[in-house]
Amino acid sequence: EVQLVQSGAEVKKPGESLKISCKGSGYTFTYYWIGWVRQMPGKGLEWMGIFYPGDSDTRYSPSFQGRVTMSADKSISTAYLQWSSLKASDSGMYYCVRGHRELGVDYWGRGTLVTVSS
Amino acid sequence: DIQMTQSPSSLSASVGDRVTLTCRASQGITNYLAWFQQKPGKAPKSLIYAASSLQSGVPSKFSGSGSGTDFTLTISSLQPEDFATYYCQQYYSHSYTFGQGTKLELK
Questions:
Q1: What is the reported pLDDT for B95?
Q2: How many Cα atoms are found within 13 Å in the side-chain-facing hemisphere of A32?
Q3: Which of A70, A96, B17, B42 is geometrically suited to a Cys-Cys bond with B13, CB 3.0 to 4.6 A?
């Protein structure tokens, strides 16, 4: 069974750094890309970018370029999304997704809630 | 970026109805179009990929069509569990943009 298990909720202060994780299981981690999606409270889905674990190629959405860093540790089938300096506007739910060029997104993690508040 | 526009933004329907939701891309995306369902407080669920193919385990009451710039999602015989928000997404060109969503509400 394919699963994407995300790390738990985080409460941070503005200016702090953060790294959240997404562990894939039940499939060959390097055969699919991992995407990240933000959903702010009461709002729609925003595509943040895509990471290819096979070759570490990364494509960021223009809205998130320079604001976040996507990475992965293939040895433990885990993808990461990190911030070096959080802002209150980074608060929201962050989903990792699995995808394939022809099949699009097929599996979603349950989400990690990030709250940034002074 | 390719812009995705869904219509209507909200739709009221009754149990047993058949509804059609629309998604339009700002430029051609061939058939690189997916649909997702999201219920309150839950992660989205993947329904359709390649405009018309059902993801594994998705019931056949959901169907998708379209190519190029215009796409539809049809849900037949609505049941209480189908009332949710539906999003389309293009995965033709980075970044893989979403539509703003259509909220399907019980009349």
A1: 84
A2: 27
A3: B17
Of B38, B89, B95, the CB nearest to A61: B95
pLDDT digits over B35-74, tens only? 999 999 999 999 999 999 999 999 999 999 999 999 999 9
User: How many Å apart are CA B82 and CA B74, to the nearest integer?
Assistant: 12
Q: Is B9 exposed, middle or buried (0-12, 13-18, 19+ CB in 10 A)?
A: exposed
Of the pLDDT bands very low, low, confident and very high (cuts 50, 70, 90), residue B91 is very high
Chain B positions in Cβ-Cβ contact with residue A4 (cut-off 8 Å): none
Tens of pLDDT, residues A22-79: 999 999 999 999 999 999 999 999 999 999 999 999 999 999 999 999 999 999 999 9
Number of alpha helices (DSSP H) and beta strands (DSSP E) in chain B: 0, 10
- Show residues of chain B in contact with A106, CB under 8 Å: 46, 49, 55-56
- The number of C-beta contacts closer than 8 angstroms across A and B is 67
Rg of chain A on CA atoms, in Å: 14
Query: Which pLDDT does position B100 carry in this prediction?
Result: 98
Which of B46, B71, B89, B102 should we substitute to test contact with A (largest number of A Cβ atoms within 10 Å)? Answer: B46
Among A12, A33, A42, which Cα is nearest to A96's?
Answer: A33
